[in-house]
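Batch manifest, entry 17 of 40.
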Amino acid sequence: MRRALSVLASLAIVLLALHVPTATAATSVNFEPRTVLGPGIPRDGSPSEQNVVELGQVSLRMTSTQTAYVVAVMRVNSATIRTLFDNEIVCRWPGGSKNMVLGQNVYHKGSGSPQWEDVSLTTRYLVQPGVDATVTCTAYLRTASLGWDDSTVALVGGSLKFADTSVANDTSGAEIQKSVSQGVIHLNADNADAREPALPTFDLAPGFKGLSVFGDNEYLICHPGSACDKSKTSKARFTLFVNQWKADGTVCHSDSSTSATVDVPYYVHHLVVPLHKQNFEVRTGSGCIPRFNAYVLVQWLGGETGGIQGTAHNLTDSRGSASRHVSDMSHVFAVPYK
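Output type: structure tokens
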């Protein structure tokens, strides 16, 4: 009897081993609270450094035409010195990458301006690898002290995830996304309006009920080369426009209900302005066809010169590294739904 029980137990162990599920890569991860160093401005005049801290990583096996929606949320506060805070996602696959970074300066604790002391940032965009591959996206917190001495900030928490692993493309098979190119689009009394970022006209297959449209701008006050009164602010209004078109080339319907007005102090320096139209209806009657475009209308309202920031170049891969990369900043994208 004992021998029979022993054989049965061994068999059960073997069967359990055969049915152990295969480990899969995470598609979401939460960030643990931590204190993060911000390197001080070098006193010898050498270039400033950014601390680049990896917070988490997600992976997804994708086809060449598959599009995923990735999003990272970070919240920081309790800075000891005014500190640069960037939320960056770097997505890589064999032979390619797609990166996005957004940020602003965080005031030190007790500054007297609490709205600038506790900051939450969301970086979000679409990824299409163009090849069959595993796409790995990593969230980085980038920091730098804006004083001579090192600073620290408290990462309160956050997360990184694939919010949608299979987003519909346009009829050409491309992801519905556009970023502002390199440089800064200046906004002042001589050039008060800009339509950036702008998503060119695109077509969808029939059958979609609506669009979820995102327009995220990085707004800069007193960009390099402009005169600047550091005691003042730059004020601007941001409005997300989404349009559907008719077959005859006229507008079927338009929505501009999503907007925000900001007044940015010099010492905040650059501010993320996120806009999201959750449910833009796709209409089918009166000559309407599934053809769309979208853009953010930025209107300078007064104060110091402002700017819309385009692609960031020469970002260090890690603190002190010689390797560099590019990350988009201001951008617009759409997620169709049925």
